[in-house]
Design brief:
The complex is a heterodimer of chains A (344) and B (280). Chain A contains twelve helices and 14 strands. By secondary structure, chain A is an alpha/beta fold. The longest helix of chain A is centred in the last third of the chain and has 14 residues. The two termini of chain A are 29 Å apart. The mean pLDDT of chain A is 95. In chain B, α1 packs antiparallel against α2 and α1 packs antiparallel against α10. With 280 residues, chain B is α/β, with parallel strands linked by helices. In chain B, 41% of the residues lie in helices and 12% in strands. The mean pLDDT of chain B is 95. Chain B is globular. Classes of the chains: A alpha/beta (344), B alpha/beta (280).
Chain lengths: 344, 280
């Protein structure tokens, strides 16, 4: 456990310019200072879909502002349902509306959907294979508020659920393509959400989202990073940095965690001579890393080495997000450091 | 509102037949939630042969009232009502609980025509009913959503989340029926987690609330009529006090009858008692 003794007195921590280091606001953007961003890509994309699809309704449990659903609520007030801070009835009502022919988009934080509302998602939505989209903010380690808000195991929880499609988008470009794609799909989807000012990265790579498909974002000879969510953005930054060390890194983005694109993963991991590194904003238990390991084992695919970059099997610390990303190894600099070490 | 079943068959006879179907199904498995089925038979008779609008040959007809069975283990009771309503065939009755049956022990939407939801994980029905009711309102449908739940489900926090949401959204098309038989898995419900006084709770949550003897058919008819005719923009609750195993005195007398074990020869004895009491 990394936690310090609570009876040990502390002093103020200061940055290089003497400034006090603060916990970022719960809803702080994960964008770097010099990154291009797009505001509320989920809310904007949903409004666009709803314009041509009368079936779409939105529900939330007192978190419309913090899940960007307020954009939809403003555009379509009569198609928006405020369910109160009550995740059980949020999911149950989403199921009931789906049974009446509507496509329910239910939003909350990932911790509350995965932990508190699991039984309702399982029995009312997944078991009946209903057309409900569950869109959840604060996935993995994207807040410094501690375990109550850090959904470090949401993918592990939902991977075991039959019928559930699981999406972990990288950036605003991913999100604005994913929303119409999963709306066109009839069935339950759990989507991790990046909200507010969301980094815009993948548009530079001519990226096209396809449900259930992994996409090679850049190729490379030495290392294959298989990543999802914001770790794809970090992997692309790391790949650029590692060029200086003459380490050639390929990045395979896997936005659909389930069903997993076994074919593409097997093909890319099977190419000779490339170390495989799976990177995810999630505990190393039960997420993309172990899913890929299973694919490789079952397919008798043996890369020269296999490593995981992900969160440790612990309740994580509270604090400032950049500090925590460094501490738990999911910052770009820590990723670069790890790959250098593994490359010897 | 006219029933879709204009019929000369009395509600007493409907309830009697529902009990008889349930006993025959119980006999197949030799055990089960037969006491609940016997207890709630009158409520189901009034629901399916007085209150609900539906087409037996078209269970998914858009113009139907929705009847949600939150208590999945009461499936034996609902199958009996669905058989009596002509939605399920009587000749499948003996498949109850068997492999590949359309009538599994716990009610599931994908298995059974007329079973609107997958119940069984208790405390789900009322929340799902909220979604149905919102959906029907969106479609400007005049149909009602009925949710049948047990007193044990009052222990679940999700029931009260849903009650608050139903009231907050002024769902006057939602009728929640609570079967109070005061028996759950570990014993008498009021001793497990005391939900009394119950009617004031629903009233405080904003429901138009009635409490009736759930084995008194005329009282039930009056309550269902009042719930449907009420003009307040609020959800409705009908709390039905029922007697476990109603109609079969030697089963009524069993102290622990949540999951009844009935000896092989006792099924015939129960059927004989019922047959001797056949109403007109």
């Amino acid at each position: 456990m990394s936690r310090l003794d609570k009876y040990m007195p502390r002093t103020v921590k200061r940055g290089p310019d003497g400034e006090i280091l603060k916990t970022s606001a719960m809803i702080a953007s994960i964008a770097g200072a010099d990154q291009r961003t797009l505001a509320a890509p989920f809310g904007e994309a949903l409004v666009k879909c709803a314009g041509s699809d009368e079936r779409i309704v939105g529900l939330t449990a007192d978190l419309s502002k913090y899940t960007d659903l307020h954009v939809f609520a403003k555009a379509y007030p009569d198609r928006f349902y405020q369910m109160g801070m009550a995740e059980a009835v949020l999911m149950s009502a989403a199921a009931g509306l789906a049974r009446e022919g509507f496509q329910s988009w239910a939003t909350t934080y990932a911790v509350f959907a995965s932990r508190r509302a699991y039984d309702f998602i399982c029995m009312a939505i997944a078991e009946e294979n209903l057309d409900v989209k569950i869109v959840c903010a604060l996935p993995g380690l994207t807040t410094g508020y501690g375990p109550s808000h850090q959904a470090t195991e949401d993918l592990a929880i939902f991977r075991g659920l039959p019928n559930m499609t699981i999406i972990d988008p990288c950036d605003a470009e991913d999100i604005r393509q994913i929303v119409p794609a999963i709306s066109a799909y009839r069935g339950p989807v759990y989507m991790r959400l990046l909200r507010g000012q969301v980094p815009l990265v993948l548009d530079e790579y001519g990226y096209r989202f396809e449900l259930g498909k992994a996409k090679m974002i850049r190729d490379g000879r030495d290392v294959l990073v298989i990543s999802s969510g914001l770790m794809t953005m970090r992997a692309l930054e790391a790949a650029k940095a590692l060029q200086k060390d003459s380490i050639d890194v390929a990045v395979l983005h896997v936005p659909t965690i389930k069903p997993l694109d076994i074919e593409t993963i097997s093909r890319e991991a099977g190419k000779a001579g490339r170390m495989v590194v799976v990177a995810e904003n999630h505990t190393v238990v039960g997420g993309l890393g172990e899913a890929v390991a299973g694919v490789l084992m079952r397919g008798n695919i043996r890369p020269p080495a296999f490593h995981q970059i992900g969160l440790p099997d612990q309740f994580l610390d509270a604090g400032a997000l950049p500090t925590l990303h460094d501490r738990y190894g999911i910052s770009t600099s820590e990723m670069v450091r790890a790959i250098r070490v593994w490359q010897g | 509102m006219a029933s879709t079943h204009p019929s000369n068959v009395s509600l007493d006879l409907r309830a009697w037949r529902i009990r008889r179907h349930a006993l025959r199904m119980g006999e197949v498995q030799g055990q089960g939630y037969i006491a609940q089925a016997l207890g709630v038979a009158d409520v189901l008779a009034v629901s399916y042969f007085h209150a609900l609008t539906y087409r037996p040959g078209d269970p998914e007809w858009e113009g139907r009232d929705r009847f949600l069975l939150s208590i999945g283990h009461y499936a034996i009771a609902l199958y009996s009502a669905l058989i009596e309503a002509g939605i399920l065939p009587e000749d499948e009755l003996e498949t109850y609980g068997g492999d590949d049956s359309r009538m599994p022990m716990s009610g599931m939407a994908a298995y059974t025509p007329g079973m609107e939801i997958t119940g069984g994980s208790l405390g789900h029905g009322l929340g799902i009913a909220v979604g149905f009711a919102l959906g029907l309102k969106r479609k400007k449908s005049g149909r009602f959503v009925y949710n049948l739940m047990s007193d044990g489900e009052l222990d679940e926090g999700s029931t009260w989340e849903a009650a608050m949401a139903a009231s907050s959204h002024r769902l006057d098309n939602l009728i929640c029926i609570v079967d109070v038989n005061n028996m759950q898995a570990d014993g008498p419900s009021t001793q497990i987690s005391n939900f009394e006084p119950l009617a004031p709770k629903f009233e405080a949550f904003g429901f138009f609330t009635q409490r009736v003897n759930g084995n008194d058919i005329p009282a039930l008819v009056k309550a269902f009529d009042a719930a449907r005719a009420h003009t307040g923009a609020q959800p409705r609750a009908i709390i039905c006090d029922t007697k476990m195993a109603k109609g079969i005195p030697f089963l009524e007398a069993r102290e622990r009858n949540h999951f009844l074990r009935v000896e092989a020869d006792e099924w015939q004895k129960a059927l004989d008692i019922l047959d001797a009491e056949k109403p007109q």
